[in-house]
Each structure stands twice: as structure tokens, then as C-alpha cells.
Amino acid sequence: MGASVVKEAFSVDELPPEGEIEAVLAWHEDNARAAIGTLLDDIRHLRRQLALAEGVMSRGMARGWRPSYDRD
Prior knowledge:
Number of strands: 0
Structural class: mainly alpha
Low-confidence stretches: none
Order of helices and strands: HHHH
Number of helices: 4
Distance between the termini: 28 Å
Radius of gyration: 15 Å
Shape: elongated
């Protein structure tokens, strides 16, 4: 399952956070371990995409901005 399950199932803007959690669990037939595994796969994929974007982005384009890999 690599692609974002939440994005495929519905538009994230349509549901409150509790609804998102319920939708992810429902997608995985209430298997929390499978849901967590898919979400971790999504995080790994997005971090790789961010690293690739950082590598090809010029400093001038972003005016010195660098992505953060950790939550603030």
C-alpha cells in the first residue's frame, strides 16, 4: 500500500481530525498496526521526496529557506 491512503480515500479537508483517524482505520479494517505501517511508509516516501526537492532547488529560488525534517 505505499500511496497515501488518506488522500486516496477522501479529501482531507472534508473531515475533522477524528474523522481522518476513523477513515484510516476503516480503510485497514480496524487493523491499527497496518494503518501505522502505511502511515510510516508515507512518511518515508515524503521525506525522500523532500530530500530530492532540496537537492534540485537552488538557494536563490527559496531565498535561503531549507526544509526541516523534524516537526517544530
